[in-house]
Design a protein that fits this description.
three-stranded antiparallel sheet; ATP binding; Phosphorylase Kinase, domain 1; EC 2.7.11.1; about 15% strand; five-stranded antiparallel sheet; alpha+beta
Length: about 375
Amino acid sequence: MNTTVIQQSKTLTFHGDPPRSKENTVLCNRYDELIQSEKLGWTEHLRLKSLLGTGGQGVVYLSERRGADSFTLPVALKFFSPERYSNEHAYDEAMRRMAVVSGRVALIAHDNLIDVQNFIERDRVRILEMEWIDGYDLDLLLTPAMLRRAKDRVSTRRWEYINNVIATRGPVRPRLKPGMAIAIMREIIGGLAALHREEIVHGDIKPSNIMVKRTGNAKIIDIGSAIDLNDMPTQRTCTPQYAAPEMLEREEFTPRSDLASLGYVLIELLSGQPLFAGINDYAKLLEAKRTLPQRLDTLLPDEVTDSDLLMGICRRLTAPDPMLRYGSAEEADTAEMGFAEFQRTLVRGDLASEYENELRVWLEELD
């Protein structure tokens, strides 16, 4: 005979309200007023701690948000400078658009897209409040100094493994191994797809706008150049070296132009060298972008050029004609000749790795 024993949790119950002090009665009344009010306002206390970066739109600071009872939270604050605007009205109009885009990005809440937390104003200056990401952007991570640091801190056996699976020396800067590069780019494609579904174009995909967290997760950051396709601004910003040809020629910002920028980043990660460094003339820069697909054999290492699939991905992403690129970020990932298919070939060849964990361990070794 089976016996089932049911254990009931014991809860202490007080009959009637406990006695209150006069002060606590006042506090309880305030509580009731708060939860019944329609509006709630308070002052946010932020302390600037250190400069994270500067750019054409302004500066970004690591800051500390302070709450009650010693609560603190690190946040990133982007201060939008009015310097490049002709007048205050132009600045206000640009910031209105930025506020709308920021609010829509905040609702996306995607693992591979920076979390937007608030858009605030102090003395008419607009400030974008975002999550602070603990990690490295790809521009900082892939430097010769960082690779030397890894070599100095690991065993010979581990160093060989890093060179075979994660990153190795390139012509100018370290280059990522193909599996690792594709793994990171697939996460960024996921973030782009989330933006594009909301009809938002990032407009400035480049290595310094891709962060790798200490968890190994990759995120798109800095939405300062993001554009709502349904409310196109007259003044648009981008980084010419990573901008699609149509962005430079016609100021045409589309989801396909984000894919071209992603393609330039991918080729740079695989080759270990900037593609358009030192080209300051727009005509020469456009020509270099138009001829890039035909020059890939001379830029990329043998382990990349030997893969027809990987070369096809690079060429299709960076096709000068937008209509020859993938139709969407999702297609770039899931198409028969897309990113996911390349990772499947690694799995079939027993060459794949747990790349997110590999990045996490590597970043631990760099600290």
